[in-house]
Amino acid sequence: MRAFYKYIIWGVACLSLCPLRGGENRELQGLCQLMERGPGDIHEHLKHLRRLSSECDSVLELGVRGMVSTYGILAGLDKSKASNKRYIGVDLFYPPIATLSKLEKNARKSNISFLFILKDDAFLDPIEVDMLFIDTLHTYAQLTFELEKFSPFVKKYITMHDTDAPWGFEDEPAPYGNDKSHYPSWVDRDKRGLLAAADDFLVRHPEWELAERYTNCHGFTVFKRRG
Q: Could you tell me what percent of the chain has a pLDDT over 70?
């Protein structure tokens, strides 16, 4: 009888650690809801990241910072009906190790392939994904470069943070000063702000359309591939 109770306790523990087959990862969804309450500079847009990524099988995040946005992306992928789900996060710096470990653990529980790459995305080979999220250096030149480089490999959505004040209308001071020599020659060195970079991209690329734009919480813009 004692062995029987041990078996029952073990089974309950397993259920609490693992999502039900075909169900949601309750821990991950709860963590995302907690992050949505703030504080922060992107918490009001986690619901958009969660909703859009739930329609996708793969997401590439350029600029993970503290990984607050990653909670929304993974919570959405957790709800996705896709069979082979992938998350790739890229940044110049390591995010908090405890946060990275927690999200990686929850991704495994949700059957999401999870990969963090410590790298400058200028040297990253493009990866084919359903959705791209960009929150890196907030300058016209940087966003223009990233959109041109990665957009051909995005099948559904391009999402961008900070498309309103302040960096929607002016450039964030770059850690290496005003030197833009590392950008290709076709990148306009004189324009400023992420909003202009996003709008100029749409003019050059009719295969993409503006789907959503929000001005709260520093701004959030969504492009959708036509067709």
A: 89
Q: What is the pLDDT of residues 93-103, one digit of tens each?
A: 999 999 999 99
Q: Assign 3-class secondary structure to 159-219.
A: EEECCCCCCCCCCCCCCCCCCCCCCCCCCCCCCCCHHHHHHHHHHHCCCEEEEEEECCCCC
Ordered DSSP codes for 53-76: HTT-SEEEEE--TTSHHHHHHHHH
Place of tokens 């559904």: 156
| Cα gap 22→111, rounded to integer Å | 11
The 10s digit of each residue's pLDDT in 176-199 is: 667 788 899 999 999 999 999 999
Task: Say what the pLDDT of residue 22 is.
Answer: 54
Domains (range + CATH), the chain: 24-225 (3.40.50.150)
CB atoms within 10 A of CB 178: 9
β-pairing verdict for 112-118 and 208-214: unpaired
Distance of alpha carbon 52 from alpha carbon 23, whole angstroms: 19
